[in-house]
Design a protein that fits this description.
This protein is α+β, with helices and mostly antiparallel strands. The chain is built from eleven helices and 19 strands.
Length: 417
């Protein structure tokens, strides 16, 4: 069938032929007979990842199989939400989880997603021991992390361009409780922010929040630790409540001051209660509380820019980036900073590398695109990198060299924009 597809940022939009195989034989046959195509997950990437004129939907590949007490095999079209609803009652969890649970397992591998704890737990790659994939010739391969280290690792962060992921074996971790204790620490500058962040690397999780919608930045370091349950007979349930507050795309643009007001209220509330206990679902997946929140940005959508720089230049580079955003005309609705640990040896296409990374959400307009071009220059100056999962307009993404599997994003990189 032909349909319009797009990512979570709603830009760009592509008219595509969408295949929906129901069996592995159908999937292999499509791969064999199409000269170029791309597997697509749930469309939650912010930029133009997962977009092409011919895509394979894996929505019928959504089953979970128990391998052992601590290992599950999950088909690529299965959502992270479904995984959590299955494993949490068994008092298991994922050592690494991104900030939304509405993504597919195949998408998590293609993006090699990370969470608020990369500095101590790595990326999605670190949890996966085996993957089943279909290569460009249509062969179904089983790749082991140890025996097939090079080709196995090349699938993580490759944006689906190395082949079609069919399933993955995931190592689970024990879940000792459903609550976390979070501490929110206000800081005055990027220099202080990084110093405070480094002091909290002993915590289970740590992330930074920034309000850049006004004239001056407001910054918080948010560190959290698990709270162990004393009652081991307690029933564990993953129950993420979701509210459909924005069922349609906003017809008018929300002004910059409105985003600033919302962020200021969040900051003030954080100062009033700097230590608090938070439910697991709300801590890890706050953006999933409101379904279709991207409708706030209207039909033009949003642009996200996510870059990483090394530890030795992080203070200077992040400070310049923040000042660039504050002094510009683009509307930055939200910004987040995280700390990456060391790069995995066998994931050449993966985004995380030791340093600090900063993600901006922008209202999609000419001012944002112009600012992103200047941010590209900054990232180049400090020898940083960008996250291809979030990118829609940057010129810095490095293509994955392939002959069969393609995407709008990869062709844009290969053509030099």
């Amino acid at each position: 069938m032909w349909k319009e597809i797009y990512g979570w940022g709603k830009y760009p939009r592509v008219k595509a032929q969408v295949y929906e195989p129901e069996t592995i034989d159908e999937l292999v046959n499509i791969v064999k007979n199409e000269p170029e195509l791309l597997a697509r997950g749930m469309g939650k990437s912010y930029g133009d990842a997962g977009l092409f004129d011919k895509v394979i939907s894996l929505k019928y590949f959504d089953k979970i199989h128990q391998v052992s007490d601590g290992v599950i095999e999950v088909e690529a079209g299965c959502s992270l939400l479904k995984v959590l609803e299955t494993i949490v009652p068994n008092k298991k969890f994922l050592k690494v989880t991104p900030g939304i649970c509405g993504i597919s397992i195949g998408g998590a591998i293609a993006s090699d997603v990370h969470g608020k704890n990369h500095f101590n737990s790595g990326s999605f790659y670190n949890m996966v021991s085996e993957i089943k994939v279909i290569d460009p010739e249509g062969h179904l391969l089983i790749l082991d992390k140890e025996k097939d280290a090079v080709i196995f690792g090349s699938f993580f962060g490759s944006m689906g361009l190395k082949g079609v992921v069919v399933s993955a074996k995931i190592q689970l971790t024990e879940l000792k409780g459903l609550m976390l204790k979070e501490v929110k620490i206000p800081v005055e500058s990027i220099d202080e922010f990084i110093d405070v962040f480094e002091e909290h690397l002993c915590c289970n999780f740590c992330v930074g929040w920034l309000n850049l919608a006004g004239k001056e930045a407001q910054l918080l370091v948010k560190a959290a630790n698990w709270i162990s349950e004393s009652d081991r007979d307690r029933v564990f349930i993953f129950n993420k409540r979701r509210y459909a507050l924005f069922p349609f795309e906003f017809p008018v643009r929300i002004p910059k001051w409105a985003f600033n007001l919302f962020n200021k209220r969040y900051y003030a509330k954080a100062l009033q209660k700097q230590e608090h206990i938070v439910k697991m679902e709300n801590y890890f997946y706050p953006l999933d509380t409101i379904t279709n929140w991207n409708n706030v940005y209207g039909r033009k959508g949003l642009l996200q820019y996510h870059f990483n720089v090394g530890l030795h230049v992080a203070k200077e580079a992040l400070d310049k980036a923040v000042k660039m955003v504050l002094s510009g005309d683009a509307t930055c609705t939200m910004a987040v900073i995280k700390r990456f640990g060391k790069r995995n040896d066998h994931t050449p296409y993966s985004f995380p590398d030791e340093g600090y990374n900063l993600a901006f959400d922008f209202v999609n307009d000419r001012a944002a695109m112009d600012l992103i071009a200047r941010l590209d220059d900054l990232v180049e100056e400090y020898r940083g990198s960008i996250y291809k999962t979030k990118d829609a307009v940057s010129r810095l993404g490095q293509p994955v060299r392939v002959e069969k599997f393609q995407s709008v994003q990869n062709k844009r990189y290969l053509n030099g924009k």
